[in-house]
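pinned: reference chain
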Amino acid sequence: MGRIAGVTAAETRERLLRAAADIFAQRGYDGTRVADIAATAGVSNGALYAHFGSKAELLVAALRAHGRRLLADLFADDPDRSVAESLVAAGRRLPRRRDARGHLLVEALVAARRDADVAGPMRDYVGERAGHIAQLVRAAQAGGELDRALSPDAFAHFCLLLAMGSALVTPDLHPVDDEEWTALLTRVVTSLAPTDLTSPQETTQ
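pinned: its structure tokens
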């Protein structure tokens, strides 16, 4: 199998990323062969290596592509909502059951601990996610939604810990009521709002 007739290089890459996400999530990094991904995508091993230099590179590329889709879907739901509301909306999704690709993060984190070839790209990926969250925090601070004293990097790290923890503590292990979880998230985000340091006496002078 070479490149499929009538299919562009970009479409071939997308097929490979989707096949990789599914198979890595189902079989794990160690249990997946490059040949399995190529066969599922309907291309040859050579065509796969024309797009990705290694299995490790393909794993992180699949994770990165899937992460972009999740973020795009989130903001497409309501592009006009505030950053604070978007943070709550993103947090509401954390305890919910995911499809097979939702377990891709777990497989990538485990593989990164065992394989130096995965560790480097994963470090870059996590850094990108943290940078994106920190950018959202700075935008919220500039718009007066979040306290300027809040460290964007520390908040990004907090969000990463929540997201990665939610990939391990699944609903079948510990379910949580959606309304209670949303109420908690709302209180957390609200507590990060700017503090008005001006006293009532000062406003009347």
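why pinned: The radius of gyration is 21 Å. The CA atoms of residues 66 and 101 lie 8 Å apart.
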